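Input (structure):
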């Protein structure tokens, strides 16, 4: 069996979703991802050399349905011979797409694959597809599906994480995002010849623990707590809730694309790989807990043959402030190596696009730190989690 390498990773800046239209609301999902296909082609990926395009989408309906990968290729003017398809694993969709593409390369079924994700939350809101887990009461009871904010509060209460700790982490996320360096992996989003957005938006310069402490909690009175009590008898319930709008991920539009290839793909692509994928992990825990990223990370670390102490960079999706705090505690991580450029609390979580975004950020940070190993991990609803380990090669 051969190996899978990352030759390039690009992403659009994350655009905040707002009432009345976000910054990227003019761009349908196929155009968001299509701009990245054009960027990769301009950066030395001949379109005709691509064996497949795999796109992760969380809410695959409307204009994000009907195989948005193929639609993006045709929008970008790529050859008719390039196939494309979609995978969906809720918030893990983008990372799952990259893992799927890497598996095809490693198995020798493809030489060059582009994988990533896209989500236009402005145009196709989360849960607008009315999935059975959210709309069928019997299935919701069987699966333990609740508002993900309730899952976040429950998980924080299980781990004894306080409101003050959550607020402090959110402040750090905003400050790091505000100070983050602009990376060459970010492709400015345009509409025709008009620049819409060049950098991530959303980081608050006024972020402080005092400001965030004054915000009301969101989920303490949610009726879904009754389902939690039936699903997990004896579980703690914080009286007034724990997470607020500041410690919840911001809604965003975005897209990401990762160029994958085998060991010899450098001859086709005219460039050396940036990293090798050395471990992946898929995990699930009893829903509605959000602890699967730590489980998936341990699986990926074991498969990579390294320990958490070997990690130079950790990019964990900030699916509420509790997620990185649990991961830090479970794996004994150095907080300075976790999300060094901030995360979704500050600049948003465009669902299916996030996996590829975190890969691009991890590669950027490995170069800046001259590091070797990076972990990327994401939780999703229904107790799911995905993880990946990269080993820098150049």
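Output (sequence):
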């Amino acid at each position: 069996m051969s190996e899978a390498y990352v030759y390039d990773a690009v992403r659009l800046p994350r655009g905040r979703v707002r009432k009345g239209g976000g910054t990227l609301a003019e761009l349908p999902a196929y155009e968001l991802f299509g701009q990245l296909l054009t960027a990769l082609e301009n950066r030395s990926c001949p379109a005709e050399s691509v064996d497949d395009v795999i796109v992760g989408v969380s809410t695959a309906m409307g204009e994000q349905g009907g195989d948005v990968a193929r639609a993006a290729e045709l929008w970008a003017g790529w050859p008719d011979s390039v196939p494309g398809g979609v995978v969906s694993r809720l918030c893990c969709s983008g990372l799952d797409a990259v893992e799927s593409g890497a598996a095809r390369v490693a198995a020798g079924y493809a030489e060059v694959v582009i994988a990533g994700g896209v989500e236009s939350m402005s145009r196709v809101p989360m849960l607008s597809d009315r999935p059975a887990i959210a709309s069928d009461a019997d299935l919701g009871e069987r699966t333990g599906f609740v508002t993900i904010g309730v899952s976040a509060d429950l998980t924080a209460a299980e781990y004894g994480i306080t409101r003050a700790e959550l607020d402090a982490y959110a402040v750090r996320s905003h400050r790091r995002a505000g100070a983050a360096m602009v990376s060459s992996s970010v492709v400015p989003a345009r509409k025709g010849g008009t620049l819409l957005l060049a950098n991530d938006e959303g980081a608050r310069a006024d972020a402080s623990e005092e400001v965030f402490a004054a915000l009301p909690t969101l989920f303490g009175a949610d009726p879904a707590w009754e389902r939690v009590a039936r699903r997990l008898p004896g579980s703690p319930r914080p009286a007034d809730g724990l997470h607020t709008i500041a410690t919840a991920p911001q809604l965003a539009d975005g897209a990401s694309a990762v160029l994958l290839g085998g060991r010899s793909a450098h001859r086709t692509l005219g460039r050396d790989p940036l990293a090798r994928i050395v471990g992946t992990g898929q995990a699930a825990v009893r829903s509605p807990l959000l602890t699967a990223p730590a489980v998936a990370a341990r699986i990926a670390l074991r498969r990579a043959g390294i320990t958490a102490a070997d990690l130079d960079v950790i990019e964990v999706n900030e699916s509420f402030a509790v997620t990185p705090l649990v991961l830090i505690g479970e794996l004994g991580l150095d907080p300075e190596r976790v999300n060094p450029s901030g995360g979704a609390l500050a600049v948003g979580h465009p669902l299916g696009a996030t996996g590829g975004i975190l890969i691009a950020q991890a590669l950027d940070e490995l170069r800046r730190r001259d590091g070797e190993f990076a972990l990327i991990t994401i939780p999703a609803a229904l107790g799911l989690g995905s993880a990946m380990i990269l080993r820098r090669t150049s």
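Notes: The first strand starts at residue 5 and ends at 11. The chain has a mean pLDDT of 96.
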